[in-house]
Structures are given as C-alpha cells and as structure tokens.
Amino acid sequence: MGLSMMIVEDDRAAIEILAFMIPRKYPQFTVELAFDGQMGLELFKERRPELVLTDINMPKMDGIRMSEGIKEIAPDTRIIVMTAYSDKIHQDKFSELGISDYLLKPIEFGKLFAAIEKATRELRTERC
After folding, report:
1. What distance in Å separates the CA atoms of residue 112 and residue 103, rounded to the nearest whole number?
2. Which of 6, 13, 46, 62 has a CA positioned 20 to 30 A from the CA of residue 83?
3. Cα separations (Å) of 66 from 17, 88, 93, 123?
4. 47: Cβ–Cβ under 8 A, 6 or more apart, which residues?
5. pLDDT tens digits, 11-65
C-alpha cells in the first residue's frame, strides 16, 4: 500500500537520517520534508500526506500548533510526535490532539518503525 508521509524536523542531521532510513524500510512511501512547523502546515495543505512524523520544538511554529492545524484540515491524519518531553502535560496534549504515537528522543529506530507500522495498519483498516 503506497502512502505519503511528511517528516517535519528542524535538525538537519536528524531529518537527513530519517529521510534516508524511512524510504529504505518503506520503499512504498512517498516522503516529503519540512524544516519547521509553518513549512510543514503549508506542505500538508498542498500534498495531504496520510502520515506525519514531527518534532515538537521548532522555529516559526511548533509541532503541537502544526498538528492542531493538520487535524482541523484532515482529522484522520496519523501523526507521530518525536519529543524530549515525557511529562504528563505533554502526554495529555498529545492525547487531546489524537496523536497516534509519541516517541522520546533520541529516537530508537525499532520503536519508530513499530509506530509507523501501527499507524499504517490503522489507515488500512479505515480504508476497508
């Protein structure tokens, strides 16, 4: 099943690694890149990816505000958050927004791939 995915991350080294690893593991994905939340929201409006992988702390617009904007446009979009925050306040906010999963930094690829596969299964189930 071909899916489109957008990676939103302001750390150039991190986004390069993700942009290399994800298509290797999921060659059926089309992957778009954005370097801050504002760029991510604009790209989302243009391309409408089914899956978004985003950082929280970014310039111009953070990942939470971007995710709110995405969910207003397309509530069924699956969003996976990468964050250094493990506190209850952030967890509650992610839950409120309907975030599919959140991963603590530094990212472990096994956990990232498990979150992507979970989101992909949910999307497949909705399409059937």
Report:
1. 7
2. 46
3. 22, 20, 13, 21
4. 4, 6, 32
5. 999 999 999 999 999 999 999 999 999 999 999 999 999 999 999 999 999 999 9
CA 84, CA 71: separation in Å to the nearest integer? 22
Element housing 42 (H / E): helix 37-47
Q: Length of the chain in residues, anyone?
A: 128
- Could you tell me which residues are beta bridge partners of residue 31? 5
Q: Give dist(CA 16, CA 51) in Å, integer.
A: 18
Amino acid at 59: P
Q: Decide if 24 contacts 50 (C-beta within 8 A).
A: no
